[in-house]
Amino acid sequence: MPPPKKFHLVFSFIMGAMMISVMTFVITMANIGWSPQFLGAWLKAFAIAYLIGVPVIFFLAPVARKITGRILGMPA
User: Fold this and answer.
1) pTM across the whole model
2) Taken in order 58, 63, 64, 68, is the CA torsion positive or negative?
3) 3-class DSSP state for residue 6?
4) C-beta contacts of 25-32 below 8 A and 24+ residues apart
5) Of the candidates 4, 5, 6, 70, which lies 20 to 30 Å from 55 by C-alpha distance?
6) CA–CA gap between residue 55 and residue 42 (Å, rounded)
7) How does pLDDT run across 7-37, given as a tens digit for each residue?
């Protein structure tokens, strides 16, 4: 795998873990509060979101970069 492709793949896994952990924590806390079920519910939400989120980041991050570049008038 070429280095830029490998970088993007690793980036997707790391960014996914960071963003999804924060978002699922906040939404789980908003939905059920700090309760005995919180940890299990949060981990379940994280697992589902991570399986969906990493491929979404992998495929859509380049699109988002291009759109951002166009909006800001920067070369691709």
Assistant:
1) 0.82
2) positive
3) helix
4) none
5) 70
6) 20
7) 999 999 999 999 999 999 999 999 999 999 9
